[in-house]
## 1
Amino acid sequence: MKKFILIIAILAVSLFAGEIKLLDKNANDPAYQLPLKKYPAFLCEATLKNGKIVQFVSVKAMMQVFFHQKYFIDHKYIDSNIKDMFVQDYLSGKKINAKDALYVFGSKVIGPHGDDLIPLENEASAKLFGIKFGGTRTLHYDKLSVGLIRYLDM
């Protein structure tokens, strides 16, 4: 019964939640050059310091750019440093600040470029996600690292 109530609550929130909308239907991810339109459930975005918005095919792609901003600026994939990052709760589609999200590692869900971090808004969403898709660990934003992203990219 508790699982059913939790599912209903998350679905109700998703009806009123904002989601990340695709800005350019022909755009590709700057990290992996995958078409953004093929993976709407994984879509993430960053606001650059110059005000531009850049979208990514997944959390892993966005963090790859975040941890290597100089490389991506030098190669003209982005034209300014990242100011803010946003992800979508995988279950509800709600847009949330990347720093406020929880990330599930090691689930059955495979991202557009292989193993990925699945963003969720809160502990309740993470528990519900775990029931359905499993997961090795749930991490807070401050635990995401270059090494973790490198590991996911192997």
## 2
Amino acid sequence: MHVETLGDGRPQHTIVACVHGDETCGWHAFNRFKASDVELTAPLKFVLANERAFKLGYRYCDVDLNRVMPGDASSDRHEERLAARLGHELAGTKVLDFHSTESRGGPYAVVAGTDAASVHLARSTGLDRVVDISYMGGGVTQAVTGVAVECGYYDDEGAATTAHRVLLNFLAAEGLVDRESVESSPDVYKVVGEERGQGYRFLADNFQRVEAGEVFAEKDGDVRRADEPFYPVLMSTHGYERRIGFRAERVSVGSRARTAGTNVGIGGADGQ
């Protein structure tokens, strides 16, 4: 794990990248920020979480770091030991955790519960869709005040560019840099279940309502139909080994972005 602090004093905010070692958009975003002329008005901590997997180009070495929090410092598995260290490093700070994905429909924010503090951070991303994924349990942001961002389709240039733009907006909205920002009033989706299956081709669109009886996935002539209406979230053809993705309900509809100054164009979950 690589930890770096910019500025003097005790940071109140932490930026996390590479919880999954092959999702490097947050790493690129942080390096772009350091190379820019944007000045911080408060200290900021950066954590490259799974440095070993990052250097190897793997998602993880032994187990998924995002699923083994809070970890076990005495474990013989790398990510379980790392999770304990990571939890200690994040404690007492507000966390922005960057990810990328095989699924389409990004960027969007992800929270582990819709408490006021987490929703506030989600609004600071400037994104107009938020997913409450507390159904899953675990995750880096569950035990801290934090928000994750799915920046786009794995680590193409677009995901890194989105991460950098979200980072700048987040820092401005949280008062760490002096520049214009967007505070969003997002649509909120709550994950209520999952669709298991291996080798299925996902046919619907994430965040677009699937009606009862509608086919949303197919494999060799075997079709999967919705038993009841739902919104697909993190569904894809290749994203998971034994899961198509998640079913969600839309629990509130936002009023799009509210600006502080001029809209900086963060973009919604339909892309840029």
## 3
Amino acid sequence: MEQQGHLDRGDGIRLAWARLDGRGPCVVFLPGLRSDMNGSKALAVRDWCAAEGRKMLRLDYSGHGASDGTFTDGGIGQWASDAAAVIADQVSGPILLIGSSMGGWIGLLLARAMPARLLGYVGIAAAPDFTERLMWAKMAPAERAALLRDGELRIPSEYGDDMIITRHLIEDGRQNLVLESPLVLPCPVRLLQGQCDPDVPWELALTLAAHVQSPDVQTILIKDGDHHGQRDSHPPAHA
């Protein structure tokens, strides 16, 4: 049976988690930006782990899902710290990280911070350094100026409410880049990427595969797959 709870990170912000007990290394699922531990991929992994009798941990970063906090107060560094705190509190022994989209970036930061515990890394449409490569780099000069002046930029999102990009998110992202310096992962690495993904270019998976230093790296490209890993025109509400 899955246990659920909250961890107070020390400043009054409570971080939500859900854990399955079982055998083997603990599978840790790291959700994407504005997603949460009840997204379709997180639940699919949870169901597989339950059926196989394996340990699993799901979690929500601050400002996401059932965790406390405000989304616009967060950034890559804080969310990675949130995930690390929940893992330290809830899991002992080896872990296998699965990161979806932004969770793939978070997973790479965690992998770099705790290599001795890591038995494997799986990136699903992993988006390392996306704040710089997929946001800032694609902004028009007027958008960059507005972001720097106002502290935030609101852009339409096909997933619901407008996306608010904060200046803090961009600047904090620059402090946590993983593709600009050596990235050693002493474990198997698997990268799954749809080639019809409108949010994360499939070439980024190849860039990550070429950059990471691991004895075992495999990239799986799904020709008609989208950002959700779906092969039809009806993606789930969350991913």
